[in-house]
Amino acid sequence: MTIESPRETGAAVASLPSDDLLLSVRNLRTHFFSREGVVKAVDGVTFDVKPGEILGIAGESGCGKSVTSQSILRILPKNGKIVDGQILFRYGDQTVDLAAEDPDGRVMRDIRGQEIAMIFQEPMTAFSPVHTIGNQIIETIRIHQQVTKEEAHDQAVEMLRRVGMPNPARNIDEFTFNLSGGMRQRAMVALSLACQPKLLIADEPTTAVDVTIQAQMLELLRDIQADLGMAIIMITHDLGVIAELTDRVMIMYLGKEVEAGTVENVFHRPQHPYTRGLLSSIPKMEPGRVEIEPIEGSVPSPYAMPSGCKFHTRCTEFMAGVCEKRDPPLIEVAGGHEVSCFLYGGREDLE
């Protein structure tokens, strides 16, 4: 399918900050509105993704990782709204601001599946139980490509083969409830990659599976990424997954970026107390026992957010009179390694 010019489709044409970027999220703020109050699920996040790059987004549950991905695809619940920021995406030969697009408009319908695809946590929610996996993959292909049903069928079989289904010609006629957990995961990847998107968002794809299937999924994603050359955003709370698969990582806490950089820098030279706490909480095998050092406290209620640095109520390096006053600025501590913490500067305006 030939992609029309964004201007021809009425898209919100914009400019990426650099020519070598595929996606650039700038100061994104996504809020949820309810009778109890406003939840600032994403509160000023900025990051970039290059073509062919794998970016990991990590943090505890409730830190805004999944809402960030939903914002990119504009699939937020009805009470969710992007209130500020840009989501700049290279679309055809130009750039569009997805945050300014109608979620149900032509541009977003074209981009979902064809340009940006998503793997969800639970395969059973990605497929209809009353249609075969083949019918659903074929439908996705025909929505975005001008091909016959037979051509779409052949493409679907080929994609099932590429993701490692044991008998693609037979599997295409299976229902999801007839497949094992590992085969469901592979079918879900095939559905997401049916149109060979430029960007794949994987939202906790290994959480609901055992360690064997998790290893298979990571190997599959690595192979497919190398084969198709697409970019991936891997969203997970599992730092082991981040270490094994991604090139760069962004750590989020209560809707904000607290640290970002290459996996090597963040894992071997963590700067933020929250990042160090996450790494320390990874179970360590000791003779006769498993040692775990959990982070003190729990993620605060989104309706009762702390003032200042959002992590200060749990931080072992809390500085009274500083950390609770305002959010620390994002500071570059090394090439491409950023951290948002008053330990590294930004206190001048408070003195």
| Overall geometry | globular
Radius of gyration: 21 Å
Name the beta content range. 25-35%
In spatial order, strands of the major sheet run 7-8-9-4-10-11-15-14
Q: For the terminal residues, how far apart are their CA atoms?
A: 59 Å
The helix/strand class is alpha/beta
Low-pLDDT residue spans: none
Average of per-residue pLDDT values: 89
**Number of beta strands:** 15
Please estimate the helix content. 25-40%
Oligomer status = single chain
SS summary, helix count: 11
Main sheet, how many strands, which sense, barrel? 8 strands, mixed
- The helix-strand sequence is EEEEHEEHEHHHHHEHEHEEHHEEEE
Describe what is shown at a glance:
By secondary structure, this protein is an alpha/beta fold.
Would you give an account of this structure?
This protein is an alpha/beta fold and about 350 residues long. It contains eleven helices and 15 strands. The chain has helices at about 65-75, 105-115, 125, 135-145, 150-160, 170, 180-190, 210-230, 240-245, 265-270, 275-280, and strands spanning about 15, 25-35, 35-50, 55-60, 80-90, 95, 115-120, 200-205, 230-235, 250-255, 255-260, 285, 290, 330-335, 335-340. The strands form three sheets. It has an eight-stranded mixed sheet with strand order 7-8-9-4-10-11-15-14, with helices on both faces. Strand 5 (about 80-90) and strand 6 (about 95) form a beta hairpin. Helix 4 packs across helix 5 (about 150-160) and helix 5 (about 150-160) packs across helix 7 (about 180-190). The chain starts with 12 loop residues before the first strand and ends in an 11-residue tail after the last strand.
